[in-house]
Design goal:
This protein has 21 helices and ten strands. By secondary structure, the chain is α/β, with parallel strands linked by helices. The chain folds into three domains: 314 residues, ABC transporter type 1, transmembrane domain (ABC transporter transmembrane region fold, Up-down Bundle); 161 residues, Rossmann fold, CATH 3.40.50; 74 residues, P-loop containing nucleotide triphosphate hydrolases (Rossmann fold). The longest helix has 50 residues. The N terminus and C terminus are likely disordered.
Amino acid sequence: MGFILDGLDTETYDRKYSDRELIKRIINYFKPHARTIMLIVTVLFLGSVSTSFSPVLISKSIDLLLKEFHLGWVFALSGFILALGLLGWLFNFLMQRYMYRVVGGLVYTLQTESLKSLMSHDLSFYDEHSSGKIVSRVTSDTQDFSNIFQLLGDLASQFLLFIILIIWLLTINVFLTLILLSLSPVAVILTISFRRIARKVTRHAKRFTAKINSEIQESISGIIVAKTFRQETTIFGKFLENNTQGYRVGLRRGLTLNLVFPLLNTVSGLGMAFIAYFSGLAVKDGGLTPGDWFLFMQAIGYFFWPLLNIASFFSQFQDGLSAAERVFSLLDAKSKVIQKGSKPMEQFNGRIEFKNLTFSYTNDEVVLKDFSLVIPEKESVAFVGHTGAGKSSIAKLIARFYEFQEGSLLLDHTDIRDMDLADYRRHLGYVPQDPFLFSATVRDNIRYAKPGASDEDIQYAAYHIGNGEWINDLANGLDTEAGSRGANLSMGQRQLIALSRVLLRNPKVFILDEATASVDPFTEYLIQEGLATIMKDRTVIVIAHRLSTVKHVDRILVLDHGKIIEEGNHGTLMEKKGHYADLYNTYFRHQSLEYVENFIKSDGKTLRN
């Protein structure tokens, strides 16, 4: 078992729930559908009655025809059986129709709650857990969870049929009925004994499905890197290995869950032999009519079929409970970013203050220690320093993407933890180094910042970034399809769209996180023109590697291992001949000369990345 389940580790937010906890919680999801469920129960009862009445009718007809044969009775019997069959079909159709309504509503609710829960998590949650595994819980697990209701409906139908037939049989021959009933505890014990092992193997199978989904998604997302380094064979080999492991897990699950059916069939065979023998003796002695004998033999099938369904129900129900356990674990996962209040941000000027703040992504390394800084409203500040100095961490804390461990972060003298985050982020514009674009038109990607914006508003924002020159390079202007993650556009065009998106929102605080680190000189020139528009009358945080981005800000802060070691404007810092001057002379100055040289060569044409 161990080697089969290697690599199927649980997620850090996974929990184990008792059956009682799970069932109690599942019932709460069914409560809004109480009226529909009552209709299902009613139709289910009528369907079971019509189905069970058919063998009883045949039984009585056999006895009647043996006494005196009439062709008219045969036609009448055929008509009644046909009518019962049609009624059974109608009741089953109605039951399935109402059932799918409940199942569809349940899936809708679960997926809505799951996505809502995911939206509430901070970025650390997505740093720790792969998107493929998360998607598996929101899609396949919610569907498997909803199947519980379908299983309950099927089980209830069979159980009602079982009860109705037992009542009929008791009125005919109590002794034979008790023999039949004496076999049921054996079947019930067999099915219940499989409960725990069924839950265990099903849980492992679901974890492996999530793992496979995650690795496939990661491989497809990184296909460019794989092809660049000729690693297609390696990826396929890894998938083949995981697929083989998945086959073993699935095989073990299938064998475990299906072992109960041969055992129940054996019990069913023994039951049929007993009933055939004793009922045959009863017919010989005159204690049972041929019609009643037929009813008892028919009842064996109707009797054991519900028990077989119970066995199937337990195995599949464990499948549903395992899915429910995984979905509830996701819903119950706690976010690390915790708001103590929800103060509305109707008016926000843009003042930012760090007070003795300490932050780390993990317990292993502290990024910021006892960090203090005041950024007045409408001041533009640039953070420079080597990789790992804490520049991007400061920007992400201002955006409230991560939780800090000590100290405080104040916005207009109010602790960020006391604010309504949705309200606050309406005043925030953030452009990362690699902006994400959705598979939609450029126009719709810009509109994402303000869904109600008109086409005129979008056009205004787009044409105020780089004077709109970049739009002429798009195949269909603003109606150009961006492609998956912006694949149809260059990095520079993606950045210009991201800047247009920010301008459309018109935020009080603007954060630019190394947005020009990967673009060509001419596009950088357009971006700089766009920045000049966006930076007016706003608090601006710039994380940059290029001198052109930071040279004209009000204040430059030089970071080293989470501490401010120098601050001032470009001229002042150059005169100090300190760390910033060293950065400029060894990196920025060379970069600046290369920029001018390449810009001249580009002759005003946008260079594609």
